[in-house]
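Hello,

I think I submitted the alpha-L-arabinofuranose job twice by accident. Can you confirm which output corresponds to this input? Input:
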Amino acid sequence: MALLFINAGRKYSKVNKNIYGHFSEHLGRGIYNSIYVGENSPIANVRGIRTDVVEALRHIKVPVLRWPGGCFAEYYNWKDGVGPDRQRIVNAGWGGIVEDNSFGTHEFLDLCEQIDCSPYIAANVGSGTPREVSEWIEYMTFSGESPMANWRRQNGRDEPWKIEFFGIGNENWGCGGNMRPEYYADIYKHFETFVRNYDNNKIFRIACGADGSDYKWTETLMRLAGKNMNGLSLHYYTMPKYYETEPYPWENKGPAVGFDKGNYYRTLRRALYIDELIRGHKHVMDQYDPKNEVSIIMDEWGTWHQAEPETNPAFLYQQNTMRDAIVAALSLNIFNTHSDRVHMANLAQMVNVLQSVILTDGEHMVLTPTYHVFDLFKGHQDSTLIESYVQQDMTGTEEASVPALHISASERADGRIHVTVVNLSVDEPQQAHFLLAGKEFSSAEVRFIAGDMNNHNQFGQPPQVEVHSMPDIKVKDNCLHFELPACCVAEIILD
Ligand code: AHR
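Support: Only one job matched these inputs. Its output is below.
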């Protein structure tokens, strides 16, 4: 039996809703033939944006969406993607295919309005100029008379948009220019000078942060430019085959489906490492910013497996199993527990690329196990983290042992307690005994997903993974007891 303790009386940081954010890049079928089908498509759409996808994203309350990349952002020229004459360019980083720029600034901001989420724009620093950045902001946010604002009006949009989040570069240690941190810190300050707040639009400035455990990058950026930024990004992908200390195994990933138990547990260990990573970066940031004024923006995270057989490997299209769902749940629990510093996270990527919440194939759409995790966790958005912990055993293999259970809990604005708990064991259900404190509870609702680690949802077939409810869970003497199935993510709402 595992004991789980939840104390509504001990409150910590606010869980920023933007921890539940997403990322969409011009990469493979991440935008075209998925989110954006064009106005003339037989697939139901509003101004070219797929209706079923938008509805599914609204259901999980996507709070913020990052665009247009990724590495794509670092060769993107925003002027190619506005007005009636769109430039056809080569998408050099992702398969060398034609990018027709039919999805540009207006379409992206329309998508955000349809989903009802905040836009997070990633600007080109690696091959762009401060002028392009400043003109893009003027184009999007200035209400008065100016060349860019007038051009926006000519292109059909009178009112400026609100742009809250603006990233100054992407992976400038790699695809964004292979820069040293000292060099990027200077470039960052140079570009940031031209990021202006027009009217009442206030921009939250995000600097390019480290790749995984590159603490030197964080230290240098905080020291040289910490006062000029609101957020510092962090990228970490979960790949099963390697351990924390090893570099990314770009050329040697495992399959998204059809993996074995050893691979499953190694993946989960890699996912749990995010906790150590965040602690490490927080520790460095605390030295320069003890008041927590600079946020960690985990703007790329998720699993990265081999591309599906018979798909273009440059398109990074992968299936999504219960293993991915467990990784998502562990990651989100960890972000919740670090919500004093982690104020945004963006899963890579929303549709048809890497750890997607939605897969599409022509008119068909499936919701992945990861989608359901975001559904089960959405109650944490803008809640207050409360104390929770688990007394338990370890599980896994000799090579990769992991805790059997993983938890986070928060108090929602409506006073209800939202708990998310993961059973990492691939084959052992857990008798979970919850001790509740801090107030009297009388009822509990439990929803969950569970299944074989390789279970996934496929086009034209009944879903193998979907959300179920547990009937008749009673709270007695402030205790709650039920069996958590193996390989399971559950949401508990306590009243
Ligand atoms: O998400 C795919 C790629 O991974 C992004 O373009 C890049 O930022 C990262 O290396």
